[in-house]
Fold:
Amino acid sequence: MSLYADLQQLGSLNVDVPLAGRTTLGVGGHAAMLFRPSDEEALIQAMLFIPQETYLFPIGRGSNLLIADKGIDGLVVDLSDLNTLETKDHTLVAGAGSRMSKIAQATVGSGLTGLEFMATVPGDLGGGVAMNAGAFGQQVSDVLQSVKLLNRNGQVQTVSREDLDMRYRYTALPQGELVLSATFELAEKDAKEVKQTMRDMRSKRSETQPLNLPNCGSVFKNPEGDFAARLIESVGLKGKQIGKANISDKHANFIVNQGGASCLDVLDLIRLAKDTVKAEKGVDLEPEVKFVGCSL
Ligand SMILES: Cc1cc2nc3c(=O)[nH]c(=O)nc-3n(C[C@H](O)[C@H](O)[C@H](O)COP(=O)(O)OP(=O)(O)OC[C@H]3O[C@@H](n4cnc5c(N)ncnc54)[C@H](O)[C@@H]3O)c2cc1C
Structure:
């Protein structure tokens, strides 16, 4: 059987799929193939059919991605249907495709604290672990116990947090491995307080971030002891437009798509901000957004 027929049995497989609509920035070309396994078992089996030389890219909510205009010449794996979510005592186990907002909601229901920030981050669990997502003083690595990983040979292993070298917006996932699920160890807290904290975080977000326009969250990591937004603003680039993209005039570490922006527009703005901050402030800003098929 062909790869196409094999994967069709284990979920859905489509060819030449536009990716821009699968990212929050709304930028990017097509995927040669997009596979959406029906569940965890199907994904494990699929690994046995996917040739090792096929470029494989796991996509979550696409909220931290800048995808090239030429797209992805490989197999994009959409893990949305690996969305199981269970809480038991102080433990929460979530599948890679679980929306972080849903995970946050589950912690309210169980009176658990530690993942309130997930109510404000528009991604899935797999992307959250891969990026060590965080906000408001919390991050995935603070409460993560272990991650279930799948390698290209179809083997599954559980790895503890200590073995993942997790740092600010960085997780050392073994090369080419996919997050299937993650287990969190959380503390108890009054559900009303947990809910209130999430409300406060959400309203702070909408006051300070350009959430009405497509964007990919923070473009750069904050350098030690400073803020990327402050630096970009201080070199006069707030509001700067190239093509159909601009540095947000609400938050200078956000680039927004005014409609029809190309990857090149966004890359040019990123280069401009990085080079100007380096030249005028001597600070080397490191991108937080993941470049897919493109680079600075
Ligand atoms: C408005 C807005 C606000 C944001 N605020 C924050 C914030 O406060 N804090 C923060 O940390 N981030 C923030 N982000 C960025 C983004 O939401 C996070 O990085 C999020 O964790 C990405 O999850 P995702 O599912 O969208 O991953 P994607 O963007 O789809 O992918 C990100 C990376 O994870 C990899 N990946 C995805 N799934 C898997 C998997 N199952 N196994 C292995 N690798 C995988 C991808 O290949 C890619 O390299 C924000 C983004 C937006 C648009």
Summary: Residues 24, 57-65, 79, 96, 121-124, 126-128, 130-131, 133-135, 169, 173, 178-179, 209, 211, 215-217, 290 surround flavin-adenine dinucleotide (CB under 6 Å).
